[in-house]
Specification:
Blueprint: H1 7-22, E1 32-34, H2 47-53, E2 59-61, E3 71-74, E4 79-81, E5 86-89, E6 97-100, E7 107-109, E8 114-118, E9 121-123, E10 139-141, E11 144-148, E12 151-153
Parallel strand pairs: 1-2, 2-5, 3-6, 4-7, 5-8, 6-9, 7-10, 8-11, 9-12
């Protein structure tokens, strides 16, 4: 292999390329936050708490054995999701449901990206402040909602 004048610029380009990836901030990497509590408050491990602590592109995992219930009932109103993009993932058999006891939405995604919902069931949800269209009675998004093997019922 030649080490002549052509190889020197290639080595510099390769070094710059490697340095660029080595300096990628850890915050740019997606995290998985695990829901461990079925309570509807801001306590540790609750769905509301994990969403509040997430950054864009994170995954909220409701599929682990650490979650000892099949229903999370929202009694404190809708859960706001300000992240640009967020994934909510339940177990493959869709045995975790999110519901409400009141006349409120379940989820309000104000980010302009994607709200990805996988393997979860949603029921209830009502937006009382509308005139005309319901504008997201159960789930509303400022971007798009992607449902993958999810169930949404009244």
């Amino acid at each position: 292999m030649s080490t002549g004048p052509l190889c020197a610029p290639l080595k510099q380009i390769a070094a710059c390329f490697c340095a660029a990836f080595a300096l990628t901030p850890a915050s740019a990497l997606a995290n998985t936050l695990i829901v461990t509590s079925c309570a509807d408050d801001a306590g540790a491990g609750t769905l509301r708490n994990q969403i509040a602590g997430a950054t864009s592109t994170d995954t909220i995992d409701l599929s682990t054995a650490q979650l000892k219930c099949s229903t999370i009932t929202l009694t404190a109103g809708e859960i706001g999701i300000p992240q640009e993009t967020l994934t909510l993932r339940g177990p493959a058999d869709r045995t975790v449901a999110i519901t409400t006891t009141g006349t409120n939405r379940l989820l309000n995604h104000t980010g302009g990206g994607h709200l990805n919902i996988e393997y979860l069931a949603f029921s209830g949800g009502y937006y009382a402040g509308f005139t005309g269209d319901a504008k997201g009675g159960c789930i509303v998004s400022g971007g798009s909602v992607y449902l993958k093997h999810a169930i949404v019922t009244q």
